[in-house]
Fold each of these.
Amino acid sequence: MDVKGLAAIVTGGGSGMGATTARALAKAGAKVAVLDINEEGVKRVAEEIGGLGFRCDVTSAEQAEAVMAEAREKHGPARVLVNCAGVAPAKRIVGRNGPMPLEDFRKAVEINLVGSFNMLRLAAAEMLGAEPVNEDGERGLIVNTASIAAGEGQLGQVAYAASKAGVVGMMLPAAREFAKSGVRVMTIAPGLFATPMLLNMPEEVQENLANQVPFPKRFGKEEEFSSLVMHILANPMLNADNIRLDGGMRMQ
């Protein structure tokens, strides 16, 4: 799908892979709306790419609906949604202070899974009601961000792994539902990427983690995530699948 002149929504777009994806979409000519809970970051990225910036809690139906309505009024119906908003908490089920607070688990699921579904449902409604953009009858693309932890969660990743497994799980039924209308649904499952969380770790920890990647022996780059999003856009045969972006890594 050629995104030139089409409306795109990127959640978690105030930093990291979301910001890089917003830049890539804008460079390709898309009219981009950037959403993030971080108001300062979202304004900075929106100004940089000449797009719209909204502070938005993706777990809130009211906030998401209001933001999507404003973006639609200014850019037209969404044709691309890339869900990058998420959190990566680390906590054991039973730690030194007793059981994990239920609220910690609920928060990860709310942001990573419910937040992704919240935006998916709203963007899909706009796509399904819009006219096709090419001879294939394509109306839109939704890309959700999961993680290799969805199937290989590590110690202390129970909330994160469960939420990302849910993201992978909702892809196929969504893709099946929307296929007749020309809307594709894909999931990207990154491995170890150079996010602020990883880069704030001690250098020796970073080196140990990077050495676990078969090739290349380093963390993934944000641009490698955004380039995959752009390839998915360009290749209409990519649908209803989860693509691992991990340098061949399999978590122990």
Amino acid sequence: MSVDPRGLATQWINHLTVERGLSANTLSNYQRDIERYCEWLEASQITDLRAVSTTDVENYVAELRRRGLAASSAGRALVVARGLHRFGVAEGHLDVDVAQDVQPPSTGTHLPDTLTIDEVEHLIEAIPTGEEARAEDLRDRALVEVLYGTGARVSEVLRLCVDDLTDCGGILRFLGKGSKERIVPIGGKALEAVDAYLVRGRPQLSKGKSPALFLNKRGGALSRQSAWAVIKQCAQRAGIEAEISPHTLRHSFATHLLEGGADVRVVQELLGHSSVTTTQIYTHVSAENLRSVWTMAHPRARSRG
């Protein structure tokens, strides 16, 4: 009996929803990737999962890379395809898991994009806060300060409510991946920007609709897409030509802490990484910075022409 890819995909997503209790965001990503896999199978005229070979799955990953998908994204798509085949075997629909030995594409060594401390200063100072500042300006200043001041993910910052900042004592609580809670200090500069926004900016944006700290013009919670747009606009104001995002501020937070002498395990806790290995990529960034400074400054770093 043939196994319809879309039919089994629906069963698997239902299983993940009910039995695994995955977050809505994770399920949405799985749904997107499984849809992409099913579409590729259809385009390849494969209508029966029993007919899929290991080579087919390898060709699927290769096609994603040819389309310009990043190695990390193609790797995640492979994880989803593997999950479907593994589920099919577990449920008795498939005899062999042809996807289990397919290797993800190599991501190579990628160092995260960061800003210098001066660039961060310019980014922040370019946002008006004086009498001429609009409510959106005060919000944007507070958003950038909180993102850089805590190193939190943009999704975590956008989940903050006003009450989270009221009498917080310089400590914020974030609910990260896997519903893991962590506490992160927040500095005086960020708190000053938040206070200015709460007093002079947020009341103009609020329509009584949302308790979220950061609001859009309609009074609802600021979305991730809008936060990205805010950061890009701020970068343009500051004359920063590099493409930056909210995550750039997270990377910069970690790098600047390590360059300032912070212990990598402390930075791990602040970022909410489950493994110190993930955090150690920032030590490579710091090492590159040290190498650059040494090359420029040490008398025997370069041969004399």
Amino acid sequence: MQLAADNGIAADVAFTMHVIQERRVAPVLQPIVDLTTGAVMGVEALARGPADTPLQRPDQLFAAASRAGLLGAMDMLCAERALESALTLRQPPPLVFLNAEPAVLDQPLSARLLTMLLSGLPFRVVTEFTERALPTVPAALLDIAELSHRLGNAIALDDVGADPMSLAFLPLVDPDVIKLDMHLLRHPSAVATAEICGVVSSTARRTGARIIAEGIETAADVVTARSLGAHWGQGWHFGRPAPPIDLHLQDIATTDGLRPARPGQHQPTGSPHEVAAAAGCRRLDDAAARRAMERAASVIDGQRHAVVLGSYCTPDVLARWQPQVDRVSRLALYTALLSPDSEGTPFTGEGCLVVMTPNYSMALCHQNDGDVLHTEDPDEVALIGRVILQRLKPRRPK
């Protein structure tokens, strides 16, 4: 049995190396359409392995690459081939969407991919993340988001609603595009659908993000997607995934419809207290700070989408608020605290606590001398939260 398994892995390695060396990945492209005007806003590139082989399907292709220890190389190849394929279109649309593999998000870009991204492409590249990347490699996600914006490109959060984590991290990721998981379109009357779409629509109105509904197969689905708040749509109703040569796009949009890139948004500089001070957050005494944390605990009690982030450089810094910190941490879906014992490095001489839900935000930042800054502004809290996320180490599966 072991010999057979070893032979299988060896075969995976050999064939996967062949696919990578020969660049035998042939992406297919699927249009993304404005639900009001019918204009083609972009295409999503979907990976396909060598035709008529067991690795033609993307799940099999990436599974084999993972078994072979070549997942990073395969992910880079797929991204490169996606851009190359989009460039063969007679008239590329304004946006090209690429999928990022969460397990290797923290790898450096290949030289070829970086060269293409710097070459003045005739479209903006939208890098898609799923909720799997959010708790696993948050710092790498912010790195990619920052690089995307510095290059004038954009980011998308995919499969929103499929997992509570996607809504929990929505304010921190601040995507330019929010893609609704297709199960929401299939169950438009469900209570959970109304809750998720309400949060997403509210976020889009506040930030200017575009909402895409996936899985649109009929004209009735278009009506449903618009009722859920979607601006754009994707699915067989508008076209099946096809090789570039077989993709006949009509009524291509002349502008991309996205907000401008915002370099610096995903990697603010300074410590949490410095960012809070620069934002003009108000000062509180210790008693008021404790009341603010009690309010945060009350607000997130029973919530399914709360995130708690924090940093403390010594046990004494945490001790002053230990009961309140313990309470909000127990209630949260996701908690990450930088401390002297954690893998991430805490911020010297200060402490910080960030609490976020889709509808509520709070940050407390204090120096060891007792200066406490407080804010409930969602944009300010998100900036402070990103400062902490930048120092979190990847959480690898055990």
Amino acid sequence: MRVLVEADGGSRGNPGPAGYGAVVRTHPTGEILLERYGSIGVATNNVAEYTGLVEGLKAALELNATEVDVRMDSKLVVEQMSGRWQIKNAGLRPLAADAAALVSRFARVGFEWIPRERNSAADALANRAMDEAAGIVPSDVEPEEPPKPVSWAPPSMDNATRLILVRHGETELTKQGRYSGRGDIPLSDEGQAQAMAAGGRVAGLARDVTAVVSSPLQRCVRTAELIAAEVGGVPVTVVDDLIECDFGEWEAHTFAEVQERWPRELAAWLGSTTVAPPGGESFETVAARTRAALSTVLKSYAGGVVVVVSHVSPIKLILRDALAASDSFLHRLFLDAAGVSTMDVWPDGNIAVRSVNETAHLR
């Protein structure tokens, strides 16, 4: 996929309070796919501009782009990244190195200088970042309402949608502790028994199940079918975006094997949800499609009870968002095969997580 990246940065004082902005667009139509902006404290214009470039390239990677056309109104950054000017400022070299490392991950990256008026979207984002850091509220934005008082009373279930999240049963790769992403492998005999046990637990949690939705991979579909049989034969609906993370070259390898063969890539992946395994997809890409899938499910079955059968990564990301947890949550939570988690979601966006990774039914 080919994309356009427009990036900019600015500083009010040079050095002074600084911010960056980056926009990723479709090629050639120019529709916006992603935007990034943020404050970076006190810095120079050039540091802010390089930061905008780095963040724009990261965003392109999140979208699995293979070719990138970078457009910036910074002559310095464009000429240095094109190799025509030397990087004499020692403070810019680490950022330039970061940008070069990101460039190497694409099949092709081109750099083009454009006048500032053609870079207005990225420039506006950079200024927005600086404004927000300074506490400046735009005139067309209404001030936020004061926070509502917290109530410790049990929430009413009126209009709530209950989500019962179930990881698929065991497979041969699960048993061996191997990365299992898009490989479409079946449940083991033990996995079939676990799925039926999970169905019993689901039946105990909800008398009337509205829907059972599943990842398209057979280990999930079969788990969903066995659960559906336990709760009255509810049809199974496949939702493609509930599929597991694509682990790329790490597929079917153990953590130890990955650590030995791809130590740098593994360290980068563990350190950032925007980094993807070689040939795979990042957790943030998985999170984006999982959120979209969950939004559709909530609209389709509002006020009902929905069993969601998926994989480790999508379920962890759903729980991370529900608990407003940091990214480190993803590497600290363990989800057993056929483990069950439960949460309630209200139309106003409130969420109550009831349980995480229940496994008593598996003993």
